Amino acid sequence: MAFDPRGDAARFAGALRTVGVSRRQPTGLMCGTADPRGAASRTLFQMANANAELAQIFAQMADVHEILGTDRFRVNAFRRASRAFADLTEDTGAIGPDVKKLTAIDGVGKGTAQRAAEYLETGGIAEHAELVAQIPEGLMDLLDIPGLGPKTIALLWREGGVESLDDLKAKLDDDELAALPGLGGRKLENLRKSIAFAETTSERISIGIAMPIAEWFVQQIEKLDAVRQTTFAGSLRRGRETIGDLDLIVAADPDDAAEISAAFTALPPVTEVLVQGATKSSVRTTDGIQVDLRIVDPSSYGAALMYFTGSKEHNVAMRGRAIARDARLNEYGLWMDEQRLAGATEQEVFEALGLSWIDPALREDRDELALAEAGPMPALVEIGDIRSELHAHTTASDGRWSIEQLAETAAERGFHTIAVTDHSRSQGQANGLNEERLAAHMIEVREAARRLEGRIRVLAGTEVDILADGRLDYADALLAELDIVVASVHSALGQDPSKATARIVRAIENPHVDIIGHLTGRLILRREGLAPDVAAVTAAAADTDTVLEINANRHRLDLRDAHARAALEAGVKLAINTDAHGAPDLDELRYGVLTARRAGAKAEDVVNCWTGEKLMEWLNRS
Ligand code: DGT
Ligand code: CA
Ligand code: CA
Ligand code: ZN
Fold it and tell me: Is residue 143 helix, strand or coil?
């Protein structure tokens, strides 16, 4: 019943960690408001998310202290505690309220352990509730605005009288904040933009949050005896980067539908039942996510799955094709007069319409119907095709693996090559390497490579910063000594598009650069990132045989699907890298692979799928 800690809680926690997002990922924690059902009714579902919730509670405590300006020592201690829980791969919920055991967790001191034990025992931390009560309730919402931190929020509150997002918007509209110290015209303009961005995106959740939740629901529903088949459909099945709601489809005997629907709406994470009918139910979870469930007769399962997978536009095209053949397609099947031609599986519906199988990732009404009409669609890249990781960090910068641990983990996955690409000197907060440290690190990597010869190929590389003007963070002579160079943007992400284009093209044109890491620096739903001219970027990459990375981290997915598609169309090869900082980051591959599939990528388009020989041939190109 509980979330599998390695699979889900850890992924949640990992999600919070990897990009340092520590505030309002939906984990069921509402700031300022008590759990409406009280601590005693806290569910297994919530408890199993203990790591993520603890990470969030401690982050909030740090935020509030910072807004109040009270206790700098505590701010740091709480941030550390937040990171410790976010990083944890073991499930705190399974450890239980045992201070001694909790203290044994890396980075957890006695005070933190006591607070965590209180949370595990009561479902909350009194100190957290007291702290949150000291600031206006609406103030915490401001922390969700990208780029707005506790210090500015304190200023807006204390000096500007801002107590909520509505206040802030009104005061921005009335130009009341321009006089505040440190809030120049540009800063206010950026703030307006950030608010607009946050508002257009707040209704959706990222795929990395949605996927584990959907999989958990599917696991629970599968256990019901009356259920013949079930899976998720909708935008999640298509692999979109953001998800509006979850759509689950169940095949069952109609006589069993009421029972299944009752079991579904009674699952622990459900806080609100929006619709409960025999064939359609709709609920909201503690995370605020809507989940729709449709129960259909097994003879309609394929048609229903197809219908609710969408996209709407793809469905319209499919229905049009049916009509052109004097048939009718709906969620129950493909019909001619009153006779059902197909419906039990998607495959038979496609076949009856004269189409080969169309992968859900491609169902967006682009060219997929024409391709499927012409013959079997080319096989899209799969996780199993990936044989190397070309962007990973070790303890030399901000990773948590030694070179050996990283290499061993990759080898266990069956990878033939792993590239060690720690951060460069400008990434001070990520402990980036200056030239001397990189030179020493390179020697260590090469020694490890020799020890591991025959087990896995270890490449000495770097993730070098692309500075604001497109210069790189290391001298060319040093880059020339490395086996592989990933170049990425991490700063000046508010730059205007023409500067961003020139910056990235300049980096691409550096002959030592092999891969451009996360092209825009965007974080899904949190940071827009750069908006370079993708045509110019892909043209430069094609000219120089430079590869563009799909960073598979669930919060990045950068290249995004459309950019990856544009790259392929320009003849550019892709990389799918996890940017691993430690276990279980290599599991992020699935998200990168889904994004690549949405772009129509085949294994041969992705350098990580190449043989070691072909990969080295490309890296050694002149
Ligand atoms: P989302 O939830 O906004 O991320 O996107 P979807 O694609 O999951 O959309 P959703 O949940 O509204 O509906 C799931 C699928 O059901 C959708 O992709 C296509 C199908 N569908 C829903 N409503 C309609 C409709 O009014 N017409 C048609 N043709 N299909 C619909
Ligand atoms: Ca949906
Ligand atoms: Ca839906
Ligand atoms: Zn990286």
Answer: coil
